[in-house]
Amino acid sequence: MKDFMKAPAPSIGNGIHVTTQELVALEGRARDLAFMQRARSHQQLAGRMQSSVRGRGLIFEELREYLPGDDVRAIDWRVTARTRKPVVRVYGEEKERPAIVVVDQRINMFFGSRFAMKSVAAAQAAMLAAWRILGSGDRVGGFVFNDEDISEIKPHRSRNAVIALADRIAEKNGMLKSTYAGAPSPEALDNVLRQVAGVAHHDFLLVVVSDYDGHGDTTRQLLLELSSRNDVICLLIYDPFMLELPTTGDIVVSGGALQAELSFRQAGVRQSIDTFARDRGRELREWQRQLGLPMLPISTAEEVAPQLRSLLEQSAWRQRRR
Question: Which is it for strands 205-210 and 231-238: parallel, antiparallel or unpaired?
Fold first, then answer.
């Protein structure tokens, strides 16, 4: 393990690739992030979720009849005297919450028209979340995937675990190149979610960072199943180029081994791309409504940390209004 205990000042690099050092240096930028939680605790990434584990904690849950083995100190003597049956006060015990950050580093993420590649924005967003989770005292791990394989970092409450996650992200990020000759893997998103489901059985916090390329009914079902047992936050990485197409010029796009030249002078080309982008956005927003998942859009045209901070504050306000 490399020694990054003394991280350099935060750096955005060149926007094309990231290094482990740059990702480690984001630790300081994550300290003021605050996630409101939908139901179980007051904040999503502010640590220490409430648990259904019974114990003598600070959060009152219910009164129930005394059972053999209950702590006699939990008996509510006033209710016991009134009902003439021994009754105990049950409290919810606070418990740490493990978290998993899922990071997309497929070839479809190697695109950016302004500030950074989608792959870089995803790497930064994932690390900001990981550092915030660790700073809250919870265990954090992750899955980093590309078109060929999936790397797993098991949740631990240590800086070494987060640095290991940064290492895996930087490793896969560095493999992305315009000359990439491998085949794109749209099904990789579903594959990694299946692996996550095999680990996150209940009460995990899951942060999925991707452009959701290749999503479909299976993706929706996997997210639905995961969110029924865990808290899931989706960070949608997008490039505004798709929503603000130029009216002149040509562009060469690559899907790995294949390349194509698109002319924006042709209205049909612009219309096809615009329709694809907007339909996809509407579909993902509908998922957010149906599944009740926070779907937070992160643009590659701006620095990630301020965007994430603003989106989380807005999400927290909306959830307080519920």
Answer: parallel
- Dihedral, CA atoms, 102, 105, 106, 110, nearest 10 degrees? 140
- Give me 84's structure tokens: 């003439």
**Is 50 exceeded by the pLDDT of residue 262?**
no
In this structure, are residues 139 and 96 in contact, taking their beta carbons and an 8 Å threshold? yes
For every residue of 164-230, which 3-state class applies, written as one string? HHHHHHHHHHHCCCCCCCCCCCCCHHHHHHHHHHHHCCCCCEEEEEECCCCCCHHHHHHHHHHHHHC
Q: Taking a C-beta distance cutoff of 8 angstroms, is the pair 130, 136 a contact? A: no
Residues 6+ apart with CB under 8 A from 53: 92, 93, 95
**Burial tier of 21 (Cβ tally within 10 Å: 0-12, 13-18, 19+):** middle
CA 154 vs. chain centroid, Å, equals 16
Task: Kindly report, residue by residue over 215-255, the tens digit of the pLDDT.
Answer: 888 999 999 999 989 999 999 998 887 655 444 445 545 45
CA distance 174 to 202: 33
Among residues 219, 195, 208, 240, which one has the least CA distance to residue 287? 219
pLDDT of residue 3: 44
Give the residue-averaged pLDDT of 185-198.
Answer: 96
Q: What angle do CA 190, 196, 202 make, to 5 degrees?
A: 130
Average pLDDT over residues 176-188: 90
Confidence (pTM)? 0.72
